[in-house]
Automatic annotation (TrEMBL):
Cross-referenced Pfam families: AhpC-TSA (PF00578)
GO biological process: cell redox homeostasis; cellular response to oxidative stress
UniProt similarity note: Belongs to the peroxiredoxin family. BCP/PrxQ subfamily.
Catalytic activity: a hydroperoxide + [thioredoxin]-dithiol = an alcohol + [thioredoxin]-disulfide + H2O
Residues of the Thioredoxin domain: 2-150
Subunit record text: Monomer.
Organism: Adhaeribacter rhizoryzae
Record protein name field: thioredoxin-dependent peroxiredoxin
GO cellular component annotations of the record: cytoplasm; thylakoid
GO molecular function: thioredoxin peroxidase activity
Keywords annotated in UniProt: Antioxidant, Disulfide bond, Oxidoreductase, Peroxidase, Redox-active center, Thylakoid, Transit peptide
Length: 150
């Protein structure tokens, strides 16, 4: 995993709407909460996404954009986002290249990991949390650290 203080690698991925998301472009305007999750519409991933949704305005008021990444395709992301009214961007990392770039470990060697990074506008990792079984702590922990950056 990347550690606090590491530079966050820049990347580009396709959004659910087919646009290209480039991390460096978003960092010009705000901090980024970059969270990697295993799969759309599974119990833990849905709880995590809905928790980010429910706290989204607080993230925005704290000058942070939330971005979710999984290997699901754009169609899956569109359905997941619409079903749960997610106001933030979901990215498709079908080949796992960004997951590898961010050194997101697999659980039991097979399940894609659940890792959240808070990246400041300078592109520095300010928070890194890895827990497959505590999806809601990704949100609360990130908010705590984000308040210290304000």
């Amino acid at each position: 995993m990347l550690k606090v203080g590491d530079s966050a690698p820049d990347f580009s991925l396709q959004t659910a709407t087919g646009e290209i998301f480039r991390l460096s472009e978003v960092l010009r305007e705000s901090n980024v909460v970059l969270y990697f999750y295993p799969k759309d519409d599974t119990r833990g991933c849905t709880a995590q996404a809905c928790s980010f949704r429910d706290q989204y305005e607080i993230f925005r008021e704290s000058n942070a954009e939330v971005v979710g990444v999984s290997s699901d395709d754009a169609e899956s992301h569109q359905q997941f986002s619409a079903k749960h009214r997610l106001p933030f961007t979901l990215l498709s990392d079908a080949k796992g290249e960004v997951r590898k770039l961010y050194r997101v470990p697999r659980t039991f060697g097979i399940v894609p990991g659940r890792v959240t990074y808070l990246i400041d506008k300078a592109g520095i990792v300010r928070y890194a949390f890895n827990s497959q079984l505590k999806p809601l702590e990704h949100v609360s922990g990130t908010l705590e650290i984000l308040k210290t950056l304000a």
